[in-house]
Specification:
Elements: H1 2-23, H2 27-34, H3 38-46, H4 54-63, H5 68-72
Helix pairs in contact: 2-3, 2-4
Length: about 70
């Protein structure tokens, strides 16, 4: 189970970074748009946050103008 969670987080991290780069914004800008700390964005993108809260993922998805599903697949 831990392996699938780690894999899922990696996918979330990769997708957040992908959509953020597509928008041409920095981690700092995304943190401000999403209303979360820069530290949170950085840790998620690095895969250091093992299980980001769904509320956080939702805020990031909204800031990136994508659905939560887009970040999870």
């Amino acid at each position: 189970m831990t392996t699938s969670k780690a894999k899922e987080i990696t996918i979330i991290a990769e997708n957040i970074k992908k959509y953020r780069n597509k928008m041409g914004i920095s981690q700092d800008k995304l943190s401000k748009l999403a209303g979360v700390t820069l530290h949170t964005i950085t840790k998620i993108e690095l895969g250091a946050t093992p299980d980001p809260r769904i509320n956080t993922v939702k805020r990031i998805a909204d800031a990136l103008n994508v659905s939560v599903d887009n970040l999870l697949k």
